Amino acid sequence: MTKRNRHSSIWAGLVGVLLLLPVTSVSAQESGAEMWGRACGRCHRIQPPNKYDADAWHAITVHMALTARLTPQEEEGIREFLMGAARQVAENPTPRPERGELASVASADPNVVSIVISRSDSTPAERGARVYGAQCKVCHGEKGKGDGPAAVGLTPRPSDLTQSELLRAMSDEELVEFLAVGKGTMPGFREILTEQELEDVVEWLRSLIGSSK
Amino acid sequence: MPKCVRSVRLAFVLSVMLAALAAAPEAQAQLLKLSGYADFEWVATETNDPTDEWHHFFDDHHFNLIGLAWVTDDLYGAVEVEYEHAGEEIALEYGYVSYVGIPHLRLVGGKFIVPFNHWNRDIHPSFISKMPDRPIVYNNVFPSTYSDVGVLATGASAVGNRSRITYDVYVVNGLKGDADDGNFRHLTANDREKPDRDDNKAVGGRLGIELPQAGFGVSAYSGNYAKTETEDLGITFLGLDGEVHWRGLEVRGEYVRASQDLTTGDENERSGYYVQASYATQANFEPVLRFSSVDFEEASGDARELGIGVNYFISASGTLRFGYYFETEDDAEFEKDNDKFITQFVVVF
């Protein structure tokens, strides 16, 4: 192939690709936490939300949206999650967890939550399961085993909720406060979830770990 | 070069500049963030010298600083300054301004890492790479890490739920070297005008699709690497990359084919690939296995490398990494063993 032909072929191929790109997007159904686990963990180990402050996460997500070729929806979802989580950490500073202590990461995408829990005909545990699915499952896994899709990229690992003596020992009120404030790499949810939503998640957690308080 | 092609290129460059100028009146530095990564190594290499079979040394391989300046909602700058080998090599890995005000399209002007396959731009940094050294295909077939000055259009569009199509299209000054030099590590990016410059720019791009647990991409690069009194000599790279993720298991592979014009009128062809599998366990250990091969059209120079490694993740920021490489190179008359062992400690901050 001659040089001129090679150049022409590559130009033609690239222009063709651009023409074939869809001009509209299908809106993602994922929460920001799920996008964070899926898109960031694809190339590198996941950095926990408490690693940087909210301003830094803003700059980093703009940069990574370009580098990782994120869609606008992914960029916005991940940024909202990380900035929201970082703000919670700043407002409720907690000491870093000791090795082996409960340490996990949850999410903060209020838009998704408001969608998933809007069905009023559900039981508290069913509503809590939907909130858990959108916000907690990415790290703690569907059954709370600490094996969500983001878990393999996190150090320390998210805890296995089903084996957590800490959760079993807490009352419902203490557990709501724990979720609201957060601990270690897990951000709190006070500004993200309503009191009712936190209580619903607690209901779901009780059913996961098989205890009641 | 045809006039119409020149006009299209000029229009593209001007549009990038106008976009930046449009945002400039409101520009005021709102954020400047500094981060980066560093790694320190102990390296032992086989020498093929019977009297002194192994050399070993410490290497302060990288101390790279990354700065992000967010100017307006739509305009930001990024820079990575790399200090390699305890400062022996200091270079600008990338430094660019980007306009991000158009959905699905981000425009970059400046020096950027060329998006060829995944390795060159996305996964070569030591805090991302699973092994302490690059696959041999990215030493001998493609000169990674290759960054260059020019303009880049990049973006993504969602396809269904949790999947996306990605694209990169760029025009850069291009790789330059001596005519007929078959060592691609000698090729350097033509950062600015030189007395012996040529006006031919290199063009390229990558098209990828990313599914929830897999991804695939095709890449191309074409440009002139040298010129003689009578002709321009071109070089072309074609690439394929793929990856599969399932829980802690990751399998990825990349293929590169290079074609270089020679003054004899022939073409120097070579190709290479790597396949890598890793499994992140629940205990913060990650074993890695990688096979890489390069195939030269000429008789000698073919090489194969099997790498075995393990990562231990001390924290979210620190990784201790070990890698042993069994490398065999076919010389003109005999096989050479170029085994090496690397212990690496990486920190990202």
Can you put this structure into words, describing what you see?
The longest helix of chain A is centred in the middle third of the chain and has 20 residues, at 72-91. Chain A has one domain (29-213). Chain A is built from ten helices and two strands; from the N terminus they run H-H-H-H-H-H-H-H-H-E-E-H. Chain A is elongated. With 213 residues, chain A is an all-alpha fold. Helix content of chain A is 54%, strand content 2%. In chain A, a hairpin with a 2-residue loop joins strand 1 (182-183) and strand 2. Chain A has a two-stranded antiparallel ribbon with strand order 1-2. The model of chain A is unreliable at 21-28 and 94-119 (pLDDT under 50). Helices cover 9% and strands 58% of the residues of chain B. In chain B, strands 1-2-3-4-5-6-7-10-11-12-13-14-15-16-17-19 form a 16-stranded antiparallel barrel. Chain B has a two-stranded antiparallel sheet with strand order 8-9. Chain B has three helices and 19 strands. Chain B has a single domain, classed as Porin, CATH 2.40.160.10. Chain B is globular. Chain B has 349 residues and is mostly beta strands. Chain B has helices spanning 3-23, 119-123, 137-140, and strands at 31-46, 54-70, 75-84, 89-102, 105-113, 147-158, 164-172, 175-176, 188-189, 202-211, 214-227, 232-246, 249-261, 267-279, 285-296, 303-313, 318-330, 335-337, 340-348. The chains are: A mainly alpha (213), B mainly beta (349). At the A-B interface, helix 1, helix 3 and helix 4 of A face strand 1, strand 2, helix 2, strand 6 and strand 7 of B.
